[in-house]
Each structure stands twice: as C-alpha cells, then as structure tokens.
Amino acid sequence: MKPGLFISFEGIDGAGKTTHIEALAAALQAQGRTVVRTREPGGTALAEQLRTLALHEKMDSLTEALLMFAARRDHLLQVIEPALARGDAVLCDRFTDATFAYQGAGRGFDRDVLATLERWVQGVASLPAGTLRQPDVTVWFDLDPAVAAQRLTVARTPDKFESQPRAFFARVASGYAQRAAADPQRFLRIAADQPRAQVWREVESGLRARGVLQ
Ligand code: TYD
Prior knowledge:
Layout: E1 5-10, H1 18-30, E2 35-39, H2 45-56, H3 61-86, E3 89-93, H4 96-106, H5 111-122, E4 137-142, H6 145-153, H7 166-182, E5 187-191, H8 196-209
Parallel strand pairs: 1-3, 1-4, 2-3, 4-5
The structure holds thymidine-5'-diphosphate.
C-alpha cells in the first residue's frame, strides 16, 4: 500500500486555488491514487457548521481562532487521519497556515497562542508524542493583493473575509510569506499572477520535482 499523502492549498482570497485542486485530483487519480478532496474550515458536518459561523458571524479574534482550530480537530480526526491511514491522497483547500495568515497576520492575533493551539490540535495518536500532523506539501498561490482584489470584484457576494479592506490582505499575504520562509521544504510557491495554464504547469512541475506526480 502506498503511504498517505497530505497536500494543502493556500493563498489569499482570489488567488485561484480551486481549478488547480481539481486538476491535481484528476492527475493523481489518473496515476491510480484514491483522492479525498476536502476544505477548511469544514470537511465534516460539525466543521461545516463551524465554518458558517466563522465566515458569517461577528466575533472577536480569539473566538474566531478557536472555531478554526475546533473545526480542524474534528476534520483531522474524522476525515484526514483515516484517509491517510488508508493510503489515500488528501487534497485540502486551506489548513493551519491560513489561521496564521488570517487570524495571526490579518487580525493581529497572538501567534504564540496559535502555535499552542496548533500543537494541541495537530498532535494525533498515529504520530509519536511531540510530532504534529502537517501537510507533506503546501501549494501556496502567491498573488499580489491588488490583483486578487480585482479578481474578487467580479466574483460573488463576499463573505466576512472577502469583504476586508486591501490592507488586511496585504497582511495576510505577508503572513503566508513568513510561514513559507519558516518551512521552505514544505512550501511550494507558485507565482499566481500568470495565465491559468501557466500556473498549472508550475504546479505540475513543482509536484513532479517533489515526487508527488510522476
Ligand atoms: P475559501 O477557502 O476562500 O473558500 P471559498 O473559495 O469557498 O470562498 O474561504 C475560506 C475563508 O476562511 C477564507 O477567507 C480564509 C478563511 N480562513 C481563515 O480565516 N482561517 C482559517 O484557518 C481558514 C482555514 C480559513
């Protein structure tokens, strides 16, 4: 049996993750892998309810961070861990880097508290004590917030995050850059300000170089 594979996708709103997640799911299936496509916050009935609250209700940033991690814990235990144990490929639209970028850098919430929550939530029974469940690869769609804002104005009704001012997304973008700098092995940076086909070619070649795609 192949070992499980855990890939997360990150970037500011409007960075264009979705079509590439679909394309990667198809490419992995074509190579014989079973793919589980999921998202955060969400991915279980409980976590989807927490998503609705977190994305649409007003709350302080600690409450928001706790909801994100509560949703993550349920999602990890109910969906991600069982899938990895079966040897599946888990493609997750956002994971903990989003909490550091949005609640940490965007909202200015204490990153030490987030790091503590990360340790609590991502310690799982199948890993040795002190080891955290993290994605094997994080595909990071890096996009100038000004370009992302233009893309979003032609999109649908914004949620609580999408309606934030440009300065918020500039902070979120720098939050991602900091997380990537702290863990360059895990992050695959994609220059997302290019035509879609070119972005996909970068995703494909980056994942080939890491042995994820043949
Ligand atoms: P997004 O992934 O963009 O989904 P959609 O494409 O359906 O809009 O929306 C999720 C939103 O939640 C996004 O604005 C980022 C935010 N978010 C956080 O603030 N913290 C987190 O930990 C996660 C996972 C997401």
